[in-house]
Design goal:
Blueprint (H helix, E strand, L loop, with lengths): L1 E6 L7 H17 L4 E3 L19 H14 L5 E9 L22 E9 L2 E7 L11 H4 L8 E4 L2 E7 L9 H7 L4 E6 L7 H16 L2 E6 L1 E4 L2 E4 L3 E3 L5 E4 L6 E6 L13 H19 L5 E4 L4 H14 L4 E5 L7 H14 L2 E4 L3 H10 L6 H23 L2 E2 L5 H5 L21 H10 L6 H5 L12 H4 L3 H13 L4 H6 L4 H13 L1 H4 L28
Parallel strand pairs: 1-2, 2-3, 7-8, 8-9, 15-16, 15-18, 16-17
Antiparallel strand pairs: 1-14, 3-4, 4-5, 6-7, 9-12, 10-11, 12-13
Helix pairs in contact: 1-2, 6-7, 6-12, 7-12
């Protein structure tokens, strides 16, 4: 059987636009001689649609789009992810067959629709409906009625949706027991560093145990803070990887199941995958929200240099404006490094001296502003000016904070946190260094090598206020990703005084994290996505 794997990048809620994308891939697959073309989970509505599912007219628009897809399936099988009316026994209030259902009085399913020759062969709704770090399917969807097998052109096919594939004694096992020879899983699985390896291993285990070939078709593209990685694949009956589509790339990939032979999994270093995820995340966030320009506060330091380099790669140099905002404390080296970065990247750089603006704030305040408040006033002045420029140019601001600083509150609310998107806020500082080294041709060497500093007071260095980043990041990784307690951290050999200090900062800065712009997710536990903590609480371990 000749299979078209349509690894597409839909836009959430753009049902008509997504329909055109699906129809174009159906035609391409037909022209390539495909017997069947497969689209990812929720590809007609985009993922995750969230409360759009409850908007008036949404369900009806999906119904009409599915009817168009059915009409386009002449001579070819089509499996597409959308929403459906679950088989609850409730009648649809519509003349003629209902593929989805009416919004009133019907439960929705996260479903795969199977069409051929203008007719609906069947549909499978997700059985394992759960809520976890990156989705809240349990809020919207009802579990489907059960697993089925479909006969199509001499092959028995099982179809399931996303998490159904991984359940013990789940739909795949049932479909195998019903005689399925090939099981198709449609999914919308966001990128998390390292998860793609686990997914391949689980797929190989399930395919081998059940003696079936497995086709997994994944979504690609950025949606708010999520980045869907693509990487669709085919696993043979013995668990061998037979085909793997590129990561972070759209495309139609046509394969002949009978002719596939084992291949090696794409070998990618972790930081390379993170790099590509961030570039795609920036590109799609800006483009899908209808913007063409971004503004980045360039300090001459590492974090802003990495964000600027990523944004230039994602959007092109003409779309980027860097803004250097020196005060009386800013070093001449920072000015030279900001200019060098702009030259290397080929982006425009504006220089705006903020000393007079900061002095004006001091003059209008009744009481003297000193210490940390005076330091933060500089950062907030920069934030105000960046927002003004963004408003004037109809541009988005990219925030430049990293996960290490954000975790311990070493950032200025309404200063460093100003922005529409925080590209590296899920990267620890040591990971930012790793990424900068990978992008060394685009980032001047001195920026990477000089000691990091916020430059909010004379002679300031991060190391004066924080533990060394390798130590800080090791503790934070255990604390955030693995939920390690105080005693766990001390038992692992971390200095207790340092652990106590970090835990204190960590708990006290939750209110800041809750006001971050969307963060591009690359780890298991991302501030804003995948981590839900109360702002007001008294727990201390």
């Amino acid at each position: 059987m000749r299979i078209g794997i349509a690894q597409i990048n839909p836009l959430v809620g753009a049902i008509d636009q997504n329909l055109k994308l699906v129809l174009s891939h159906i035609e391409r697959a037909r022209c390539a001689g495909s017997d069947l073309v497969i689209f990812p989970e929720l590809s007609l509505v985009g993922s995750p649609p969230q409360d759009l599912l409850w908007r008036g007219g949404f369900v009806e628009q999906v119904q009409r789009a599915l009817e168009d897809i059915a009409s386009s399936s002449t001579g070819i099988g089509v499996i597409v992810g959308a929403i459906s009316c679950c088989a609850t026994g409730r009648p649809a209030k519509r003349n003629g067959p209902c593929l989805v259902g009416d919004k009133e009085g019907l439960d929705l399913g996260n479903s795969a629709f199977f069409f051929s020759d203008g007719a609906l062969i069947g549909k499978e709704s997700q059985l394992i409906v759960s809520s976890h770090d990156t989705c809240s399917h349990g809020r919207y969807f009802t579990s489907g009625p059960g697993a089925h097998v479909f006969d199509f052109r001499g092959i028995r096919l099982g179809i399931n949706v996303c998490a159904d594939l991984w359940a013990n004694d789940g739909p795949m096992d049932v479909q195998a027991s019903l005689g399925a020879q090939v099981v198709i899983n449609i999914c919308a699985s966001p990128f998390v560093d390292g998860l793609q390896i686990d997914r391949r291993e689980l797929a190989a285990k399930s395919a081998k145990e059940n003696g079936v070939a497995l086709i997994c078709v994944n979504l690609v593209g950025g949606q708010d803070g999520l980045v869907y990685e693509g990487g669709s694949f085919v696993t043979g009956q013995e668990g061998d990887l037979l085909f793997e589509a590129p990561y972070f790339s759209e495309g139609l990939f046509v394969v002949d199941l009978e002719k596939l032979t084992p291949v090696r999994q794409q070998t990618r270093h972790s930081i390379d995958l993170i790099h590509r995820a961030l570039v795609l995340g920036i590109h799609d966030y800006v483009q899908k929200n209808g913007f063409k320009q971004v503004i980045i506060g360039i300090s001459g330091g590492l974090d802003s240099a990495v964000v600027a380099a990523l944004a230039t790669e994602a959007l092109g140099e003409a779309a980027i404006t860097g803004v250097f905002l020196p005060s009386g404390i800013t070093s001449e080296i920072s000015r030279k490094d900001a200019r060098a970065l702009a030259r290397t990247l080929g982006i425009k750089l504006m220089e705006i001296e903020i000393t007079k603006a900061v002095s004006a704030f001091h003059r209008v305040l009744t009481h003297p502003v000193t210490g940390l408040s005076a330091e933060n006033l500089q950062a907030r002045t920069r934030g105000t000016l960046l927002m003004t420029l963004a408003n004037q140019q109809n541009a988005l601001i990219l925030a430049t904070g990293n996960k290490s600083e954000i975790a311990v509150g070493y950032n200025t609310l309404y200063g460093d946190t100003v922005g529409a998107l925080a590209p590296i806020a899920d990267l620890y500082k040591t990971q930012v260094y790793d990424l900068a080294k990978e992008m060394r041709e685009r980032i001047p060497e001195r920026i990477v090598n000089k000691p990091p500093s916020a430059e909010l007071r004379p002679g300031q260095r991060d190391q004066d206020d924080l533990p060394p980043y390798p130590l800080l990041d090791a503790i934070l990784h255990e604390l955030i990703e693995n939920n390690a307690s105080h005693n766990d951290l001390v038992a692992q050999g971390f200095p207790e005084a340092v652990v106590n200090d970090i835990l204190c900062r960590y708990y006290q800065s939750e209110y800041k994290r809750n006001q971050l712009p969307p963060v591009i997710k690359v780890s298991k536990k991302t501030f804003g996505i995948g981590r839900r903590m109360p702002i007001t609480h008294a727990y201390r371990d």
